[in-house]
Amino acid sequence: MGSIKIAPSVLSADMANLKGELDKIAGADYVHFDVMDGHFTGNLTFGVDILKAVKRSTDVPVDAHLMVSNPDETVDWYADAGADMITVHYEASTHLHRTLTYLQQRGVKAGVVLNPATPVCVLESIIDVVDMVLLMSVNPGFGGQSFIPGTIAKLHELKAMCERHGVSPMIEVDGGISSKNIAEVVKAGANVLVAGSAVFKSEDPAAEVTLLQKLGNEAAQEA
Ligand code: DX5
Ligand code: ZN
């Protein structure tokens, strides 16, 4: 197994056949679970009961991306439901340090997410604590959007900040990732790649996961 992880987003899966869709991505590294509350994001997806159903249906660890307005008050719901990793938005979290360290004490990997308009410099005082940084490469809300090119410069900045601090959290990128751009994103420093429509809208999601892992790991070796 290589160092690059692929996290298919079930946002783009056929929810009428969740178990079948999860079976297709049994070779993935994470299941990316997009929680949207219709408030932080202009879309509403799924919550705790569906997360429990996902956990019952797959052995692949779950990466829960909370696009909700009140993560400080609700992270326990997702930890109780079995999320292996939980990321909360910087823009939505008033007590980010407390929320992330609390999750870690619970044995859950904890990460912070930045929207495209939020600069990397806001991480300066939290970078030593996080297990993961997730850079959004689209504005949160929907699958199938185009990758925002400015994400590449943010990845370079984030890598430099990690080096200055002597830390190496996982670096995840979410939105508009496909076999066409994964190499560029990995070379800029990402090692966990979310892919929703690229995986679930393809004819063969299992093969697409394998392809993304292969292209990602090749790019990591060249970087
Ligand atoms: C967007 C979500 C993403 C989405 C990515 O708000 O956070 O995880 O599912 O979908 P694609 O890969 O289609 O851009
Ligand atoms: Zn996401």
Word description of this protein:
With 223 residues, this protein is α/β, with parallel strands linked by helices. It is 36% helix and 18% strand. It is built from eight helices and eight strands, in the order βαβαβαβαββαβαβαα. It has helices spanning 18-24, 48-57, 71-80, 96-105, 151-165, 182-187, 197-200, 205-222, and strands at residues 5-8, 31-36, 62-67, 85-89, 109-114, 132-136, 170-174, 192-195. Strands 1-8-7-6-5-4-3-2 form an eight-stranded parallel sheet. α3 (71-80) runs parallel beside α4 (96-105). The longest helix has 18 residues, at 205-222. The protein is globular and about 40 Å long. The mean pLDDT is 97. The site of D-xylitol-5-phosphate (DX5) has 21 residues, from β2, β8 and α7.
For the structure shown, list the relevant keywords.
223 residues; alpha/beta; 8-stranded parallel β-sheet; 8 helices; 36% helix; binds zinc ion
